[in-house]
Queue: 3 jobs
Job 1
Amino acid sequence: MLDLQTIQQAATRIQEHVLRTPCVPSHTLSDITGAQVFLKFENLQFTASFKERGACNKLAQLTMDERARGVIAMSAGNHAQGVAYHAQRLGIRAVIVMPRFTPGVKVERTRGFGAEVLLHGDTLDEARAHALMLAEQQQLVFVHPYDDPDIVAGQGTVALEMLADVPGLDTLVVAVGGGGLIAGMATAAKALQADIEIIGVQTARFPAMVNAIKGTHHPQGSSSIAEGIAVGTPGKLPQSIIARLVSDLVLVDEGDIEQAIVMLLEVEKTLVEGAGAAGLAALLKYPERFKGKRVGLVLCGGNIDPLLLAAIIERGMVRAGRLARLRVSARDVPGTLATITATVAAAGANINEVHHQRAFTSLAAQNVEVELVIQTRGPQHINEVLASLQAAGLDAQLVH
């Protein structure tokens, strides 16, 4: 039976081995969202995710026989690292099955903690089936990422710390994949503060828990930038707890998550992965719902592929009007390109890319089309650059 006492015991068990992460107010995000926002920095854990809590709690309770046999886990990354790290610390053999889409950074870090990593299957469900087969073959203890009371109790310690640091929170907003984190947090938080509201957030591409709880039939996608919560089959234990204790579940889109990642990087100078930004994405998408409330967000993980992060930052700059693509048409005579670049420079913008197009254009043969990617201060500055180009007798347009 999972209750407050079980979670408090888990907190005692793991306190020497897991970081007690800060939970602090964000004044800028509060101004942006209209809520009083408090951030729980679980991305500061040694393996950069809350998953360590559950893994540590589970492994610490294994019998000597179970420790001797070793453990196996299935995970797209963060649970894998948590199990691998704490297994290494305790001297336990760890085998980790990861789906093939797992970001390289997570695979390498898991190997770095001494685990045997096997890449298998194109979905979490395929990886899980393979892990269960190996567990039976090799007599390994299967450590489920979310459908296990010891794991859920470990994750629930996040709420104990948040409510100790910030008493009187109105709402907790928590990312939901299999549901282990929100189930543990809801159990602890509701026992400590009966009137607290718990809101779960799923990506629209993986709405399995929303469908299970609300009886909806949202279609499931094949991939998400929030791969940590890209779960096709919700956990049975978490689902029963969520149905009882969680106030609501909401969906956010990929663009909402991208925007939240960039905002946390710019405003808080903190790096989160897609799942870690889901809570803020919900606040940005549904501001009226949280307005004026004291809201606790869990930045649940910070393991993001650097190339994906680079793409997200660039796309974020485009959305913010800090990167723009312009198309300039002009007579193809010597000095035209120099005029264009000088005009852009005089308007205070920096040129990232220039593409000079003669053949693939519908313009007259003596004309040229120049495509520029420029860095600006924002949408108003883009308009100033366009006005300067037009004032110089050039036909300039913003390309969306």
Note: DSSP finds 17 helices and 14 strands in the chain.
Job 2
Amino acid sequence: MRPANIVTSVADVLAGIAISGYFAQLEITVATVLPVLLLCLSTIGLYGGGVVMNDVFDAGLDKIERPERPIPSGLINIGEAATLGITLLIAGILAAFLTNSTSGIIAFLVALSAVVYDKWGKHHSFLGPVNMGLCRGLNLLLGISILAFAVNTWWFLAIVPIIYIASITMISRGEVHGGSRTVLYAASFLYGLVISFILYFSFVQGKVWFALIFLLPFTWMIFTPLLKAIKEPVGKNIGKAVKAGVLALILMNAAWAAAFGSLYLALLIILLLPLSFKLGRIFAVT
């Protein structure tokens, strides 16, 4: 299920909730916190289920390239894994529908996008990264959908995580056999584009200094291993760049929350970072 990565998906949802302005309009009570918890549970199910199904579809290839993974190593058989993945996806969709119908529809689209990527998308050099990015973009919208009408206002922000995750997916293709400097340079450009987008929106919202608190460490975290990978594009260095890019999503989401004036939510998101790091030491991230 990639527990460390699941924490980053919760950060996506919290960032989306900050963008929607949910807590700016409502008092914090049990009734107002419940939809937040439901959407967090939803993304846990969707992300966990998507990753499990990825391993199900990759079981044959993993016997050769990644025999340490749970299915080829014999820790769990493919039927049990498929049951777990499908159950998690359904639970994620149901939790979202308990919030509102818009959230439910978006959760269904997340699950659909994940399965399409797992089965077909990953095999396409261009569509694969975009497909994976779409999963994250929709996950941000899942958080925004806590106020259904806010999706109509901020839907286009999903483009930013699409670009970012597409970049990481491009990089990850070199994890096993080494990568191409051209691809790594392209990812560097796209990373810069993502940072520029967040800076722009923080400027528009008048919260650029708040956003910079999180954007600066985000920039350092993603570019340090990426520059090392560009210098020496071997599998080990590329793996580190991918892992840093995934975990840095928490900082990016904190920057989103800060850019929209939700400093408390930004700080809550940041608290997820040490948890993700800890889980990343215990469980595989890629």
Note: Residues 92 and 182 are 38 Å apart (CA to CA).
Job 3
Amino acid sequence: MRKIKGDDLFRYYLLSVSVLVLFVIILVFLELFSNSLLALRIFGIEFFIRNIWDPIKREFSALPFIFGTFYTASLALIVSYIISVLVAYALTEIVPRWIAEYISALVDLIAAIPSVVIGLWGIFYLIPLIRDVIYPALKPLSFIPLFSGATYGFSYLAATLVLIFMITPIQVSIFREAFLSVPRDLKDALYALGATRYEVARHVVIPYSRRAMMAGVILAYGRALGETLAVTMVIGNKPNITLSLLSPGYTLASVIANEFLEATDPLYSSSLIALGLVLMIISLIVNIVGYIIIRRAQR
């Protein structure tokens, strides 16, 4: 009889943990689905395409929250990605090593700040800044849909800035480690041919680190899509579909956190659970698409 080796035990352990995680995900999905059936049966497909949320009239839909979730998370990811690439490259190629170590430690500390603390920072600093400084500066650009309307500070813009602050440290840390893994010989060879730092970054550093960078982007996007408390504290909590960054809005996670305790009506609570189901499906789709992109980049 063949003896079970340590490698086999470790393999079985990893397989069992993977199966357990998959089993838990399936259980959570089934629980959300079963508890959201009431809302899905009553509203049908209209639950996903209407722009209405009125608990008093018992009219519910997911569209304004889906829009708010993707709008804030996508804007935050675009801005954060640009900042993260520049900061990570500066820490690995430009800034002196001893200074880069202190800055990297600071970035890691920022990533560990609880979301409620960032939400408080948003309320007491960011909201007055938007209301008293940014909004008056953007008034001449009010003819642009992104900056139309008025604001008291609580807005899509506030939520986007908070998300940028939260996901940028994640991407910087991952991008920095990816850039550090690029073989020095490849960069020196291009420098020897007379290439600039920009050309080295474009033709060597970023292509070589593409897979790790994509993983960082997916991780940051997932964090932005599911962020709850900090966004709830600054976004304004109003179902609103508009391109104006100055308007208040709502996200899937924030409406669940903000209204679930008030949902005494079965249809109301079922609708909120259906929003949780939508958020879970969105997160799974984002991760699956990201995995496919990483696999293609690897090939």
Note: The chain has a mean pLDDT of 86.
